[in-house]
Amino acid sequence: MLKSVPGTNDIFSQSKEYAFREPVFRYIVETAQKVLASSGAQPIHTPIFEYAEVFQKGVGLTSDIVVKKEMYVFEDRGERLLALRPEPTASIVRAYNEHGMKVWPQPVRLFTWGPIFRAERHQKGRYKQFHQVDYEAIGSADPLVDAESIALMVKIYRELGLQGLEVKLGSVGDPEDRLRYNAYLRELFRPHVKRLSQDSQARLESNPMRILDSKDPGDQALLGELQVKPMLEFLGSESSAFHQAVQRYLERLGIPFHVDPSIVRGLDYYVRTAWEVHHRQIGAKSALGGGGRYDGLSEMLGGPRVPGVGFGIGIERVAIALEEEGISIPPDPSPDLYLAPLDEAAKGEALSLAERLRPKFRVEIGYSVKKVGKALEEALKRGARYVGFLGEAERQKGVVALKHLASGEQREVRWEALEEALGPVSGVQR
Ligand code: AMP
Protein backbone atom coordinates (compact mmCIF):
# COMPACT_ATOMS: atom_id res chain seq x y z
CA MET A 1 0.00 0.00 0.00
CA LEU A 2 1.48 3.32 -1.02
CA LYS A 3 1.80 6.02 1.62
CA SER A 4 2.27 9.77 1.71
CA VAL A 5 5.73 11.32 1.73
CA PRO A 6 6.93 11.83 5.34
CA GLY A 7 6.71 15.52 6.14
CA THR A 8 3.46 15.93 4.20
CA ASN A 9 0.04 15.58 5.80
CA ASP A 10 -3.51 14.76 4.84
CA ILE A 11 -5.91 17.30 6.27
CA PHE A 12 -9.37 15.89 6.92
CA SER A 13 -12.08 16.12 9.52
CA GLN A 14 -11.36 12.88 11.39
CA SER A 15 -7.56 13.21 11.49
CA LYS A 16 -6.06 11.79 14.70
CA GLU A 17 -3.88 14.87 14.96
CA TYR A 18 -5.65 18.05 15.93
CA ALA A 19 -3.29 20.14 13.78
CA PHE A 20 -4.42 18.31 10.65
CA ARG A 21 -8.16 18.43 11.21
CA GLU A 22 -9.84 20.17 8.34
CA PRO A 23 -12.34 22.16 10.48
CA VAL A 24 -9.35 23.58 12.45
CA PHE A 25 -7.57 24.46 9.22
CA ARG A 26 -10.73 26.08 7.86
CA TYR A 27 -11.36 27.99 11.09
CA ILE A 28 -7.88 29.52 10.83
CA VAL A 29 -8.22 30.42 7.16
CA GLU A 30 -11.74 31.82 7.55
CA THR A 31 -10.79 33.90 10.58
CA ALA A 32 -7.77 35.32 8.74
CA GLN A 33 -9.89 36.01 5.67
CA LYS A 34 -12.42 37.89 7.77
CA VAL A 35 -9.80 40.06 9.46
CA LEU A 36 -7.89 40.79 6.26
CA ALA A 37 -10.97 41.44 4.14
CA SER A 38 -12.24 43.88 6.79
CA SER A 39 -9.06 45.90 6.22
CA GLY A 40 -9.90 46.16 2.51
CA ALA A 41 -7.21 43.71 1.37
CA GLN A 42 -8.07 41.55 -1.64
CA PRO A 43 -7.49 37.83 -2.09
CA ILE A 44 -5.09 36.65 -4.77
CA HIS A 45 -4.02 33.15 -5.78
CA THR A 46 -0.79 32.69 -7.66
CA PRO A 47 0.45 29.37 -9.10
CA ILE A 48 2.16 27.04 -6.65
CA PHE A 49 5.11 26.82 -9.02
CA GLU A 50 7.05 29.50 -10.83
CA TYR A 51 10.26 29.81 -12.80
CA ALA A 52 12.91 28.94 -10.26
CA GLU A 53 14.51 32.37 -10.80
CA VAL A 54 11.51 34.06 -9.19
CA PHE A 55 12.47 32.47 -5.89
CA GLN A 56 16.23 32.37 -6.42
CA LYS A 57 16.20 36.11 -7.04
CA GLY A 58 13.28 36.69 -4.70
CA VAL A 59 14.48 34.96 -1.56
CA GLY A 60 18.11 35.71 -2.33
CA LEU A 61 21.02 33.51 -3.23
CA THR A 62 22.40 33.36 0.29
CA SER A 63 19.18 32.42 2.04
CA ASP A 64 18.85 28.95 3.59
CA ILE A 65 16.08 28.17 1.14
CA VAL A 66 18.51 28.42 -1.77
CA VAL A 67 21.83 27.53 -0.11
CA LYS A 68 20.55 24.48 1.75
CA LYS A 69 18.60 23.38 -1.30
CA GLU A 70 15.31 23.59 0.51
CA MET A 71 13.59 24.44 -2.73
CA TYR A 72 11.93 21.72 -4.80
CA VAL A 73 13.33 22.46 -8.24
CA PHE A 74 12.48 20.47 -11.36
CA GLU A 75 12.78 20.74 -15.10
CA ASP A 76 9.71 21.49 -17.14
CA ARG A 77 9.92 18.81 -19.86
CA GLY A 78 13.63 19.33 -20.10
CA GLU A 79 13.31 23.06 -20.62
CA ARG A 80 13.31 25.77 -17.98
CA LEU A 81 13.78 25.15 -14.30
CA LEU A 82 10.64 25.47 -12.23
CA ALA A 83 10.27 25.46 -8.44
CA LEU A 84 7.46 24.78 -5.99
CA ARG A 85 6.97 27.95 -4.00
CA PRO A 86 9.05 28.02 -0.80
CA GLU A 87 7.29 31.25 0.25
CA PRO A 88 4.55 33.37 -1.33
CA THR A 89 5.95 36.92 -1.32
CA ALA A 90 8.10 36.67 -4.44
CA SER A 91 5.16 35.26 -6.45
CA ILE A 92 2.86 38.04 -5.34
CA VAL A 93 5.37 40.76 -6.16
CA ARG A 94 5.96 39.04 -9.52
CA ALA A 95 2.18 39.18 -10.12
CA TYR A 96 2.05 42.85 -9.03
CA ASN A 97 4.65 43.72 -11.67
CA GLU A 98 3.28 41.44 -14.37
CA HIS A 99 -0.24 42.89 -14.12
CA GLY A 100 0.83 46.52 -13.84
CA MET A 101 -0.62 46.99 -10.36
CA LYS A 102 1.70 49.96 -9.90
CA VAL A 103 -0.97 52.14 -11.55
CA TRP A 104 -3.65 51.02 -9.07
CA PRO A 105 -4.23 53.08 -5.92
CA GLN A 106 -1.24 52.32 -3.68
CA PRO A 107 -0.46 50.39 -1.62
CA VAL A 108 -2.02 47.35 -3.25
CA ARG A 109 -2.90 45.05 -0.37
CA LEU A 110 -3.29 41.38 -1.18
CA PHE A 111 -3.66 38.18 0.75
CA THR A 112 -3.54 34.51 -0.03
CA TRP A 113 -3.44 31.11 1.64
CA GLY A 114 -2.25 27.73 0.50
CA PRO A 115 0.56 25.22 0.45
CA ILE A 116 4.24 26.10 0.74
CA PHE A 117 7.05 23.62 0.03
CA ARG A 118 10.44 23.30 1.66
CA ALA A 119 12.69 20.25 1.50
CA GLU A 120 13.51 20.42 5.20
CA ARG A 121 14.09 17.60 7.65
CA HIS A 122 10.64 17.21 9.11
CA GLN A 123 9.64 17.17 12.77
CA LYS A 124 6.63 18.34 14.77
CA GLY A 125 5.80 21.84 13.53
CA ARG A 126 8.16 21.58 10.56
CA TYR A 127 6.97 19.92 7.39
CA LYS A 128 7.96 19.60 3.75
CA GLN A 129 4.55 20.82 2.69
CA PHE A 130 2.92 23.24 5.10
CA HIS A 131 0.40 26.02 4.69
CA GLN A 132 0.47 29.75 5.18
CA VAL A 133 -1.87 32.67 5.24
CA ASP A 134 0.05 35.48 3.64
CA TYR A 135 -0.54 39.22 3.45
CA GLU A 136 1.35 41.79 1.37
CA ALA A 137 1.03 45.58 1.19
CA ILE A 138 2.92 46.67 -1.90
CA GLY A 139 3.63 50.25 -2.98
CA SER A 140 4.14 52.25 0.20
CA ALA A 141 7.30 53.04 2.14
CA ASP A 142 5.43 54.50 5.11
CA PRO A 143 6.03 52.98 8.57
CA LEU A 144 2.28 53.20 9.15
CA VAL A 145 1.89 50.30 6.72
CA ASP A 146 4.38 48.19 8.69
CA ALA A 147 2.50 48.87 11.91
CA GLU A 148 -0.83 48.09 10.27
CA SER A 149 0.55 44.78 8.96
CA ILE A 150 1.75 43.78 12.42
CA ALA A 151 -1.59 44.84 13.91
CA LEU A 152 -3.53 42.76 11.35
CA MET A 153 -1.39 39.72 12.06
CA VAL A 154 -1.89 40.06 15.82
CA LYS A 155 -5.60 40.59 15.29
CA ILE A 156 -5.86 37.29 13.42
CA TYR A 157 -4.24 35.41 16.33
CA ARG A 158 -6.44 37.18 18.84
CA GLU A 159 -9.64 36.56 16.87
CA LEU A 160 -8.69 32.89 16.88
CA GLY A 161 -8.65 33.09 20.66
CA LEU A 162 -4.88 32.74 21.18
CA GLN A 163 -3.36 34.37 24.23
CA GLY A 164 0.23 33.28 24.73
CA LEU A 165 1.58 35.62 22.06
CA GLU A 166 4.94 37.35 21.93
CA VAL A 167 5.57 39.95 19.27
CA LYS A 168 9.28 40.38 18.60
CA LEU A 169 10.15 43.44 16.58
CA GLY A 170 13.50 44.08 14.97
CA SER A 171 15.06 46.02 12.16
CA VAL A 172 17.57 44.73 9.65
CA GLY A 173 18.36 48.30 8.59
CA ASP A 174 18.99 49.60 5.11
CA PRO A 175 21.49 48.01 2.71
CA GLU A 176 24.14 50.62 3.66
CA ASP A 177 23.62 49.86 7.36
CA ARG A 178 24.04 46.18 6.63
CA LEU A 179 27.29 46.78 4.73
CA ARG A 180 28.68 48.48 7.83
CA TYR A 181 27.37 45.73 10.09
CA ASN A 182 28.73 42.96 7.86
CA ALA A 183 32.15 44.64 7.84
CA TYR A 184 32.04 44.76 11.64
CA LEU A 185 31.04 41.07 11.82
CA ARG A 186 33.77 39.93 9.40
CA GLU A 187 36.39 41.75 11.41
CA LEU A 188 35.03 40.27 14.62
CA PHE A 189 34.88 36.67 13.37
CA ARG A 190 38.01 36.51 11.20
CA PRO A 191 40.45 35.84 14.03
CA HIS A 192 38.21 32.93 15.10
CA VAL A 193 37.43 31.50 11.68
CA LYS A 194 38.75 28.02 12.58
CA ARG A 195 36.22 27.74 15.39
CA LEU A 196 33.27 28.47 13.11
CA SER A 197 31.20 25.60 11.69
CA GLN A 198 31.62 24.89 7.98
CA ASP A 199 28.31 26.54 7.17
CA SER A 200 29.32 29.64 9.07
CA GLN A 201 32.75 29.77 7.47
CA ALA A 202 31.01 29.83 4.11
CA ARG A 203 28.73 32.60 5.34
CA LEU A 204 31.60 34.73 6.62
CA GLU A 205 32.19 36.25 3.20
CA SER A 206 28.77 35.88 1.57
CA ASN A 207 26.44 36.92 4.40
CA PRO A 208 28.00 37.06 7.87
CA MET A 209 24.71 38.12 9.47
CA ARG A 210 23.47 34.59 8.92
CA ILE A 211 26.15 33.32 11.34
CA LEU A 212 24.05 34.90 14.09
CA ASP A 213 21.21 32.48 13.16
CA SER A 214 23.44 29.41 13.44
CA LYS A 215 22.15 26.55 15.57
CA ASP A 216 25.62 24.92 15.69
CA PRO A 217 26.71 24.56 19.36
CA GLY A 218 30.30 25.62 18.56
CA ASP A 219 29.07 28.76 16.79
CA GLN A 220 26.67 29.42 19.65
CA ALA A 221 29.49 29.22 22.19
CA LEU A 222 31.67 31.58 20.15
CA LEU A 223 28.79 34.02 19.76
CA GLY A 224 28.39 34.02 23.53
CA GLU A 225 32.08 34.79 24.11
CA LEU A 226 32.36 37.51 21.50
CA GLN A 227 29.45 39.60 22.77
CA VAL A 228 28.39 40.57 19.28
CA LYS A 229 26.75 43.95 18.98
CA PRO A 230 23.25 43.75 17.49
CA MET A 231 22.32 45.11 14.08
CA LEU A 232 20.10 47.65 15.82
CA GLU A 233 23.22 49.55 16.94
CA PHE A 234 24.22 50.00 13.31
CA LEU A 235 21.00 51.55 12.04
CA GLY A 236 21.52 54.80 10.14
CA SER A 237 19.47 57.86 11.05
CA GLU A 238 16.71 57.15 8.51
CA SER A 239 16.20 53.50 9.30
CA SER A 240 16.42 54.29 12.99
CA ALA A 241 13.70 56.95 12.72
CA PHE A 242 11.60 54.48 10.74
CA HIS A 243 12.02 51.82 13.43
CA GLN A 244 10.95 54.34 16.10
CA ALA A 245 7.91 55.35 14.06
CA VAL A 246 6.72 51.74 13.76
CA GLN A 247 7.03 51.37 17.53
CA ARG A 248 5.06 54.56 18.20
CA TYR A 249 2.19 53.37 16.02
CA LEU A 250 2.14 49.98 17.76
CA GLU A 251 2.13 51.65 21.19
CA ARG A 252 -0.73 53.83 20.08
CA LEU A 253 -2.66 50.72 19.01
CA GLY A 254 -1.93 49.11 22.38
CA ILE A 255 -0.17 46.12 20.80
CA PRO A 256 2.34 44.62 23.24
CA PHE A 257 5.71 43.93 21.62
CA HIS A 258 9.33 43.97 22.52
CA VAL A 259 12.29 45.00 20.47
CA ASP A 260 14.38 41.91 19.88
CA PRO A 261 17.77 42.58 18.31
CA SER A 262 18.13 38.91 17.38
CA ILE A 263 15.42 39.00 14.73
CA VAL A 264 17.31 38.47 11.49
CA ARG A 265 14.88 37.14 8.95
CA GLY A 266 16.14 34.28 6.82
CA LEU A 267 15.37 35.93 3.52
CA ASP A 268 17.82 38.31 1.85
CA TYR A 269 15.45 40.91 0.52
CA TYR A 270 14.25 42.28 3.84
CA VAL A 271 15.07 45.85 4.81
CA ARG A 272 14.15 47.81 7.92
CA THR A 273 11.21 46.24 9.75
CA ALA A 274 11.36 42.54 10.58
CA TRP A 275 9.17 40.79 13.11
CA GLU A 276 8.12 37.42 14.39
CA VAL A 277 5.21 36.34 16.50
CA HIS A 278 5.95 33.47 18.87
CA HIS A 279 3.82 31.38 21.15
CA ARG A 280 4.94 30.76 24.73
CA GLN A 281 3.65 27.19 24.96
CA ILE A 282 4.65 25.42 21.79
CA GLY A 283 8.35 24.86 22.40
CA ALA A 284 11.23 25.03 19.97
CA LYS A 285 9.17 25.56 16.84
CA SER A 286 7.42 28.47 18.46
CA ALA A 287 7.21 30.92 15.55
CA LEU A 288 3.58 31.30 14.54
CA GLY A 289 4.52 33.69 11.79
CA GLY A 290 6.90 36.32 10.60
CA GLY A 291 7.00 39.34 8.41
CA GLY A 292 9.07 42.18 7.17
CA ARG A 293 9.72 44.96 4.71
CA TYR A 294 11.23 44.15 1.31
CA ASP A 295 11.75 47.42 -0.59
CA GLY A 296 14.34 45.90 -2.95
CA LEU A 297 12.45 42.79 -4.00
CA SER A 298 10.56 44.10 -7.02
CA GLU A 299 13.77 45.34 -8.60
CA MET A 300 15.45 41.99 -7.98
CA LEU A 301 12.64 40.43 -10.02
CA GLY A 302 13.33 42.83 -12.89
CA GLY A 303 10.50 45.23 -12.06
CA PRO A 304 10.45 48.87 -11.02
CA ARG A 305 11.51 49.92 -7.54
CA VAL A 306 8.44 49.30 -5.39
CA PRO A 307 8.49 49.15 -1.60
CA GLY A 308 6.49 46.51 0.23
CA VAL A 309 5.81 44.88 3.55
CA GLY A 310 4.00 41.69 4.49
CA PHE A 311 3.77 38.59 6.63
CA GLY A 312 3.24 34.85 6.56
CA ILE A 313 1.34 32.87 9.18
CA GLY A 314 2.10 29.16 9.55
CA ILE A 315 -1.31 27.49 9.65
CA GLU A 316 -0.10 24.18 11.18
CA ARG A 317 1.83 26.07 13.88
CA VAL A 318 -1.27 28.08 14.74
CA ALA A 319 -3.27 24.84 14.94
CA ILE A 320 -0.68 23.43 17.37
CA ALA A 321 -0.96 26.59 19.49
CA LEU A 322 -4.77 26.37 19.48
CA GLU A 323 -4.54 22.80 20.72
CA GLU A 324 -2.01 23.80 23.38
CA GLU A 325 -4.37 26.48 24.65
CA GLY A 326 -7.28 24.03 24.67
CA ILE A 327 -9.31 26.06 22.19
CA SER A 328 -11.86 23.75 20.66
CA ILE A 329 -13.26 24.35 17.23
CA PRO A 330 -16.96 23.64 16.82
CA PRO A 331 -17.28 20.42 14.81
CA ASP A 332 -19.14 20.52 11.54
CA PRO A 333 -22.87 20.06 12.14
CA SER A 334 -24.33 16.60 11.65
CA PRO A 335 -27.01 15.98 9.04
CA ASP A 336 -30.49 17.32 9.68
CA LEU A 337 -31.96 14.37 7.85
CA TYR A 338 -30.90 10.92 6.78
CA LEU A 339 -33.30 9.84 4.09
CA ALA A 340 -33.47 6.07 3.67
CA PRO A 341 -35.04 4.35 0.65
CA LEU A 342 -36.64 1.06 1.74
CA ASP A 343 -37.00 -0.30 -1.78
CA GLU A 344 -35.25 0.09 -5.10
CA ALA A 345 -37.96 2.32 -6.59
CA ALA A 346 -37.67 4.82 -3.68
CA LYS A 347 -34.01 5.61 -4.40
CA GLY A 348 -34.82 8.16 -7.11
CA GLU A 349 -37.47 9.85 -4.96
CA ALA A 350 -35.04 10.02 -2.02
CA LEU A 351 -32.50 11.77 -4.23
CA SER A 352 -35.05 14.27 -5.61
CA LEU A 353 -36.35 15.07 -2.13
CA ALA A 354 -32.81 15.52 -0.83
CA GLU A 355 -31.94 17.84 -3.70
CA ARG A 356 -35.04 19.92 -2.98
CA LEU A 357 -34.16 20.30 0.71
CA ARG A 358 -30.48 21.11 0.12
CA PRO A 359 -28.70 23.45 0.72
CA LYS A 360 -31.07 24.82 3.35
CA PHE A 361 -30.75 21.54 5.22
CA ARG A 362 -27.94 19.06 5.49
CA VAL A 363 -29.42 15.97 3.92
CA GLU A 364 -27.76 12.61 3.37
CA ILE A 365 -29.39 9.70 1.62
CA GLY A 366 -28.98 5.95 1.87
CA TYR A 367 -27.32 4.78 -1.33
CA SER A 368 -28.58 1.23 -1.06
CA VAL A 369 -31.91 -0.22 0.02
CA LYS A 370 -32.04 -1.06 3.73
CA LYS A 371 -34.48 -2.46 6.23
CA VAL A 372 -35.93 -0.03 8.78
CA GLY A 373 -33.69 -1.20 11.63
CA LYS A 374 -30.49 -0.94 9.59
CA ALA A 375 -31.48 2.49 8.24
CA LEU A 376 -32.06 3.72 11.78
CA GLU A 377 -28.59 2.51 12.75
CA GLU A 378 -27.03 4.38 9.83
CA ALA A 379 -28.85 7.58 10.83
CA LEU A 380 -27.63 7.24 14.42
CA LYS A 381 -24.02 6.66 13.27
CA ARG A 382 -24.16 9.93 11.37
CA GLY A 383 -25.66 11.78 14.33
CA ALA A 384 -28.60 12.90 12.17
CA ARG A 385 -31.48 14.84 13.75
CA TYR A 386 -34.14 13.00 11.77
CA VAL A 387 -34.37 9.81 9.82
CA GLY A 388 -36.88 9.67 6.98
CA PHE A 389 -38.12 6.29 5.73
CA LEU A 390 -39.33 6.06 2.19
CA GLY A 391 -40.89 2.77 1.14
CA GLU A 392 -43.65 1.61 -1.17
CA ALA A 393 -46.46 2.73 1.18
CA GLU A 394 -44.96 6.19 1.73
CA ARG A 395 -44.44 6.71 -1.97
CA GLN A 396 -48.09 5.87 -2.70
CA LYS A 397 -49.21 8.52 -0.21
CA GLY A 398 -46.53 11.09 -1.09
CA VAL A 399 -45.17 11.15 2.44
CA VAL A 400 -42.00 10.33 4.41
CA ALA A 401 -42.15 8.49 7.74
CA LEU A 402 -40.13 11.05 9.68
CA LYS A 403 -38.61 10.01 12.99
CA HIS A 404 -37.03 12.50 15.39
CA LEU A 405 -34.08 10.60 16.76
CA ALA A 406 -33.73 12.37 20.10
CA SER A 407 -37.36 11.90 21.15
CA GLY A 408 -38.19 8.79 19.12
CA GLU A 409 -41.36 10.52 17.92
CA GLN A 410 -42.45 9.43 14.45
CA ARG A 411 -45.08 10.81 12.08
CA GLU A 412 -45.92 10.93 8.40
CA VAL A 413 -45.04 14.18 6.68
CA ARG A 414 -46.14 15.13 3.19
CA TRP A 415 -43.24 15.83 0.82
CA GLU A 416 -44.25 19.50 0.43
CA ALA A 417 -44.31 19.92 4.19
CA LEU A 418 -40.86 18.41 4.87
CA GLU A 419 -39.09 21.74 4.95
CA GLU A 420 -41.42 23.06 7.62
CA ALA A 421 -41.16 19.84 9.62
CA LEU A 422 -37.35 19.94 9.62
CA GLY A 423 -36.95 23.63 10.46
CA PRO A 424 -35.49 25.61 12.04
CA VAL A 425 -32.02 24.79 10.69
CA SER A 426 -29.74 23.47 13.40
CA GLY A 427 -26.26 24.91 13.96
CA VAL A 428 -24.23 26.91 11.52
CA GLN A 429 -24.07 25.78 7.92
CA ARG A 430 -20.39 25.32 7.17
P1 AMP B 1 9.20 31.95 7.17
O1 AMP B 1 8.86 32.33 5.78
O2 AMP B 1 10.27 30.88 7.26
O3 AMP B 1 9.44 33.09 8.08
O4 AMP B 1 7.91 31.22 7.72
C1 AMP B 1 6.76 31.91 8.18
C2 AMP B 1 6.02 31.00 9.12
O5 AMP B 1 5.66 29.79 8.47
C3 AMP B 1 6.85 30.56 10.30
O6 AMP B 1 6.77 31.51 11.33
C4 AMP B 1 6.16 29.27 10.69
O7 AMP B 1 4.99 29.54 11.43
C5 AMP B 1 5.74 28.70 9.36
N1 AMP B 1 6.73 27.72 8.84
C6 AMP B 1 7.92 27.96 8.26
N2 AMP B 1 8.52 26.83 7.85
C7 AMP B 1 7.68 25.82 8.19
C8 AMP B 1 7.70 24.40 8.01
N3 AMP B 1 8.70 23.78 7.40
N4 AMP B 1 6.65 23.69 8.49
C9 AMP B 1 5.61 24.29 9.11
N5 AMP B 1 5.52 25.63 9.27
C10 AMP B 1 6.53 26.38 8.82
From TrEMBL:
Question: Pfam families, from UniProt?
Answer: HGTP_anticodon, tRNA-synt_His
A GO CC term attached to the entry: cytoplasm
Gene for this protein?
A: hisS
Tell me its family. Answer: Belongs to the class-II aminoacyl-tRNA synthetase family.
Q: Which residues form the Aminoacyl-transfer RNA synthetases class-II family profile domain?
A: 28-330
Q: Give residues annotated as binding L-histidine.
A: E87, P88, T89, R118, Q132, E136, R265, Y269, Y270
Known catalysed reaction(s)?
A: tRNA(His) + L-histidine + ATP = L-histidyl-tRNA(His) + AMP + diphosphate + H(+)
What is the name of this protein?
Answer: Histidine--tRNA ligase
Q: Name one GO biological process term.
A: histidyl-tRNA aminoacylation
Q: Which UniProt keywords apply?
A: Aminoacyl-tRNA synthetase, ATP-binding, Cytoplasm, Ligase, Nucleotide-binding, Protein biosynthesis
Gene3D superfamilies, per the entry = Anticodon-binding domain, Bira Bifunctional Protein, Domain 2
Q: Which organism is it from?
A: Allomeiothermus silvanus (strain ATCC 700542 / DSM 9946 / NBRC 106475 / NCIMB 13440 / VI-R2)
Q: How does it assemble?
A: Homodimer.
- Cellular location of this protein? Cytoplasm
Q: Which GO terms describe its molecular function?
A: ATP binding; histidine-tRNA ligase activity
Please verify whether the record's keywords include Hydrolase: no
Q: Into which EC class is this enzyme placed?
A: ligase
KW ATP-binding (keyword) present: yes
Enzyme Commission number: 6.1.1.21
